[in-house]
Amino acid sequence: MNIMTEAGVEQKLAQRTNEPPIKMKGEKVNVHYGEKRALFDVDLDVRENQVTALIGPSGCGKSTFLRCLNRMNDTIDIARVSGKITLDGEDVYDPKIDVVELRARVGMVFQKPNPFPKSIYENVAYGPRIHGLAKSKADLDGIVESSLKKAGLFNEVKDRLLESGTGLSGGQQQRLCIARAIAVSPEVILMDEPCSALDPIATARVEELIDELRENYTIVIVTHSMQQAARVSQRTAMFHLGYLVEEGATEKMFTNPDDKRTQDYITGRFG
Amino acid sequence: MTDAISTLGGGRPVSIHTDDAAKARLKTRYAAEMRFKWLGAGAVALAGFFLVLLLSTVVTQAWPALRMNYLMLPLDLSAAKVDPAKLDGFDFQGVINDALAAEFPDVTSRQDRRLLRGLISTGAGTFLRKDIAEDPGMLGTTVDYAVPLDDFADLYLKGLLADVGTDEAIATTVTPSGTTGDIELTFGDDAMLALARGHGATEGENGALTLTSGAASLLVALNGGTVKLTALAPGDGGTVVAKGLVIEALDSNAPAATGQAALRVIDTPESSRKISDKEIVWLDRLQSEGLTESRFNSIFFFTGASREPELAGVWGAVVGSFLTMIVTLAIAFPIGVSAAIYLEEFAPKNRLTTIIEVNINNLAAVPSIVFGLLGLAVFLNFFGLPRSAPVVGGMVLALMTLPIIIIASRASLRAVPPSIREAALGIGASKVQTVFHHVLPLAMPGIMTGTILGMAHALGETAPLLMIGMVAFIVDIPGGFTDPATILPVQIFMWADFPEPGFQQKTSAAILILLAFLVIMNAIAVILRKRFERRW
Description:
- The complex is a heterodimer of chains A (271) and B (536).
- Chain A has a domain at 22-112 and 187-266: Rossmann fold (3-Layer(aba) Sandwich), CATH 3.40.50.
- In chain A, 39% of the residues lie in helices and 25% in strands.
- Chain A is built from 11 helices and 10 strands.
- In chain A, strands 6-7-8-3-9-10 form a 6-stranded mixed sheet, with helices on both faces. Chain A has a 4-stranded antiparallel sheet with strand order 2-1-4-5, with helices on one face.
- With 536 residues, chain B is an alpha+beta fold.
- Chain B contains 18 helices and 12 strands.
- Chain B has helices at 2-11, 20-62, 92-103, 110-117, 124-134, 151-157, 191-198, 277-288, 298-302, 315-346, 351-363, 368-382, 390-414, 418-426, 431-459, 463-467, 488-497, 502-532, and strands at residues 67-76, 142-148, 168-169, 174-176, 182-187, 202-203, 209-210, 217-222, 225-234, 240-248, 262-266, 292-296.
- In chain B, strands 3, 4, 5, 6, 7, 8, 9, 10 and 11 form a 9-stranded antiparallel sheet that branches. In chain B, strands 2-1-12 form a 3-stranded antiparallel sheet.
- Chain A binds chain B through residues 70, 72, 75, 77, 100-104, 107-110, 112, 114-117, 126-127, 130-131, 164, 166, 177, 180-181, 183-184, and chain B through 348-349, 417, 419-430, 433, 437-438, 442, 534-536.
């Protein structure tokens, strides 16, 4: 109620002018899986150096939208994407865009930790190596170390870099996957429920990490946890049945949403 | 009983899970479980029993073939006998025959000498020629040379050709009437009559007995010679007079005292064995003089095929099998794995790929002889490739193995979790990088297992190779992929078909070698799987 006071409006205006530039933009994004339509005309902006959370009940299309951003949907034969998604103004679905380059710029962390069944070092070094980011072995060592440090994993694994990445605990594995994504120096990191397979302590650790990473990267995170969205994100988008219901600053979304469905979902009335 | 139930009913509330009907249901469930368990255990036990039976039969059959008897003969290779300048056309067999004849100076008739020569393998001269070529130092001296025995002589010494009893002392005096030719032996008591009756002698008049060739052979050894009994008749004063044929001349016709003469009974009648009494007596003498020697059968392991059982070896077939398998592997593995990768990772899922898939699965079930016909029609008749060659055999077997490899490879590619693919794609690996850096290494243990099992299958295959002429009788060991060759299963098939008893053991021994081949291949499959297995 008091948001609509003058002070509130002023604050809002100030916020708007301070808003960081748009990194990725979705315009009228539609996705079909065969005959079934999964997304309906979604318009969503992702702003630079912010965490954008996508929330909504299961099957609402938030993961589908996320996977459109780095064209991971290409790997699903029956998926068809229409509409326009841009990265720094370039259409990512333009046939001239190289999907390998796109995925190097838009990295991804998955729901289930999926380290390669190789050593910790190899897990992190693989990306830089295939993209030719390291000139020498020392270079590569440096990238691996700094990536692991940024992912907050270095101190835990520095003595066993050559041991298998699958031998780590779940939370460590997920941070290894984040380190692996960071190692390629992406601009955007997509996270698909990165904490759903983790216990609360590991979750807290990863959330902290996400907050730190915001400084250098643009992050889009899909989450089922309202609290997590509230804790880590600056902007939140609410999906429902393939539609983007509402999108806005996280604070506003959680305190005074415009749409009743958002309100109901956030307060736990459904979903 | 009723009491027990009522107290139970009183103690616990009766529900659909605790009443009598429920107990009965539970009982039938446990009974079914028990039945299944015992059926399963029975099936496993039965399978184990037959496996043990099979293996023990093959092994006991094959065992004698692993050793072979040689005759140690002093060969005179002095310049007077063997002219070092004319080695090429020299009759080395003759040298060996002379040395053997020298051991038996009594054997003079042409017929007997031929029989005596028959104790030695007809290939002995060839071995001697080869050994002299390798070591010319043997010439000019007398050397003790191990001469391979003929297959029948060898089998006799192994005890496989006739039931031979041990020598038993005769508990009476034996008086011979002469030292050579047909003689009469007079036994001090009539125990011999009963013994002869017991061994199938034919009854004549006045209690006389005749030992025909259909009866067991009774050999009496006395005074340093051997007499074969042919007929017996009761003599004066409880004695027995036996007619006999001297096989080895006696030293004298002095009477042998009690216990000095020995009787040897060969239960297998002479007419139904492949070795005569004479040969048996000769071999026994050679053996008792320590001239025979049982050695590791290197001929069997390291020579090629032959119609003579004692000269037949399995090495030609082993090399042929090996060369064929190399060709099969070199063709089937790369093509099969590539096809599997394409179909599983790259091919669009449409009607065409579905048809291809169904057909690959069907190909795995095509009878192998059909592949043989295909090989005959395409590789031999159309492309004009050489007959009986490992290269063609390998190509035919590769066609047969391809579907197996493709199916196994696709299954193991599919078993790689999609999360690994996503992880690689997610950091910007291309499709090919994803497959070759991550998916293929993880699928490799399964692919290799499938490949080796497919190869093992191909190794045991006979039918398709019959069609392309790999059943030919090939003596030379193949030196390359285009040389005529045969393979182990075909060799086994041919040996099993030969009538000579010596091939029976060889057949079993070759089966053992084939089994060993298969066991090794399967062991490699297991080791590779363990070695490359990664968990995720």
